[in-house]
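Sat 14:20. Reprocessing the chain from the morning session after the first attempt stalled halfway. Input below, unchanged.
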Amino acid sequence: MVRCIARAAASVVCVLGLAWPALAAAWGPLGHQAVAAVAQERLTPRARAQVDALLAGDLSADGTPSGRTTLAQVASWADEIRGSDADHPRWHFDNAPVCAGTGADACPNDECASRRIVSQLALLADPNQALRARNEALKWVVHLAGDMHQPLHAADYAQGATRVPVELEGHPDKHALTLHGAWDVRLVNAALQAGHERTPPPKALRMLLKKAAGVDQARLREPPARWLEESNRLARTVALDYPGFACVPNGGDTDAAAAATPPTTQPVVLSREYQRRAIRVIDERLALAGARLAQVLNDALDR
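Finished this time. Tokens:
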């Protein structure tokens, strides 16, 4: 759990990063594919036909025909366009405070995941909009639904923990890794038992679909703002629950230089127990994200 201490010297621990590095990308390709594949299987026939029509002329990030025809195949498009004119870096997360009394506006100018998925769903549901606009809205919705279920995409701490270096206990790979990166890729691969595979293993997808089928209807109907609340809680109680993490009361005088300072320069070792707990949460979040994505797509397209 998050602990709070009152030491001024530790004031950089819970400061808010004003913008996250462009490399932060929830779940990585495998996680996004898994969420989208679960959703695709849960579409109604009419919604599936609408998805097929919207993806029929899909374009890649460079504007050439992509040949992609499934939700899983386009799930990472919003990451692929990073750095282009179509990119919206702030759409991928909410800077929701982790520590009481810290953080600026979690969604300045409505540029955040929880607001943009709502506007993109409205665009997607409007048959009077241009086909290309609805195609891109579909791809944004698919991607953001995944992003919003990654706990560290709802946490302001150390720019979504992209500034927290970590090592995984028992893992032979000692390449530089951040806590955010661990949750995006390493722990997701472990949850899916993917090894070096480039797509989610069929067995893992079957398990996620089984979990998605058991999600209560009330949870499926919860609005995106609620998804973010859940992720923020999990960021505080699971993702950031490692030795040495602490909150400090924000006196309001944190400067920009402190806000850019990593909490530590030494890697935090994530224990095997931490990894097991994280994997359980990731497994649940991937299944829930897929079920909720299918629900919002059915609501938007089965009309």
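Strands lie at 166-168, 268-270.
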